[in-house]
Design goal:
Layout: E1 3-6, H1 29-38, E2 43-47, E3 53-62, E4 69-77, H2 86-101, E5 106-112, H3 116-124, E6 128-137, E7 141-149
Parallel strand pairs: 4-5
Antiparallel strand pairs: 1-2, 2-3, 3-4, 5-7, 6-7
Length: 174
């Protein structure tokens, strides 16, 4: 049985094994602490019965006007706990917070263009590729900006794909 709960400071000392996957971005402690302090409703952990961390999600809410959105900064599940729907449950939690509490128009995330399993999972969850960001990852690999419209975006304007790729300097950070 999995327990999903808010991430807490002590988890920062216990989640390193989840970040060992080469596709998972690892940040410095102050980055995680900033998210924990500013957006606690967007930072959750899945915990196994033996108290091992199975995976986590961290995100935030940002933007203005019709660009007001939830953002998935990181979602990862340890290899031994994959294919158990944990990522889906964590994503649903972030989407629900974005939709029902913060009244966002959409949720977005970035994924490596080569990460086919993650792209397929996000598509199953209702995400579409909104745009390609050239050399997004370390100036080498393209990233895909994927989005899912929420209930406030009745006309689904937020997920109409851009026709051309962009560069990282064209991204808007609010």
């Amino acid at each position: 049985m999995t327990t999903i709960r808010r991430f807490c400071c002590n988890d920062l000392l216990r989640f390193a094994s989840v970040n060992l996957d080469h596709l998972t971005e690892t940040f410095n402690m102050s980055f995680y602490m900033t998210y924990l302090a500013r957006w606690p409703d967007y930072f959750h952990v899945g915990e196994a019965p033996d108290n091992r961390i199975m995976g986590y999600i961290m995100g935030k809410v940002e933007g203005q006007g019709e660009s007001w959105h939830g953002h998935v900064t990181a979602v990862t599940v340890s290899p031994e706990y994959r294919r158990q729907q944990l990522a889906k449950k964590l994503m649903n939690l972030l989407e629900d917070t974005s939709d029902n509490i913060d009244k966002a128009y959409f949720v977005d995330l970035f994924v490596r263009a080569s990460n086919t399993p993650a792209i397929k999972m996000y598509e199953k969850l209702g995400y579409v590729i909104y745009r390609r960001v050239l050399r997004y990852y370390s100036g080498e690999e393209d990233g895909l900006d994927m989005r899912k419209a929420l209930s406030r975006d009745v006309e689904k304007k937020s997920i109409v794909p851009l026709k051309r790729p962009i560069t990282p300097d064209e991204l808007e950070y609010d």
